[in-house]
Amino acid sequence: MSSVKWTLTPFQELSPSDLYDMLRLRSEVFVVEQQCIFLDMDDRDQGAHHLQGRLHGELVATARILAPGLAYEEPSIGRVVGSPRHRGKGYGIELMQNAIKETIRLYGSVPIKIGAQLYLKKFYEGLGFLQCSETYMEDDIPHIKMLRKA
After folding, report:
1. Which of 61, 79, 137, 143 shows the greatest Cβ crowding within 10 Å of its Cβ?
2. 91-134: per-residue pLDDT in tens?
3. Cα–Cα dist 99/8, whole Å
4. pTM for the whole thing?
5. DSSP letters along 4-63, please?
6. Span 5-148: which CATH code?
7. Taking the domains of the chain in order of start, what are their residue ranges?
8. What residues does 18 pair with on adjacent strands?
9. Cβ partners under 8 Å of residue 15, min gap 6
């Protein structure tokens, strides 16, 4: 059993240091590691619930849960990211399992839609998501839309 502590927090209740840690990790992976110049802060964070996993106080994984209508007709999980220093320990799967559980708690047993980087297709399929779009480019990275049925 993991000793990661998972918390779900609406944006308005995030502490400044939690917000900083989350945005720093997203920037570290999405901008620096993936060498993708894009505006991560897309005006959706303020309406989201933010799931954070911390190990001994250090942020190891985070994702945001968007209400229906903010990104898609369905609720959505996005900005899914794990710390490079903690990869290979199962925290990504744990993050998504918790995100799915919290999305269902918040919005009921309804379909969940995500926009996934194509290389993560098998990872998300293992969590019950199925591809529901053609491949498209977003910020020069191949993506697909995926849906997890209720």
Report:
1. 61
2. 999 999 999 999 999 999 999 999 999 999 999 999 999 999 99
3. 9
4. 0.95
5. PEEEEEEGGG--HHHHHHHHHHHIIIIIIITT-------S-GGGSEEEEEEETTEEEEEE
6. 3.40.630.30
7. 5-148
8. none
9. none
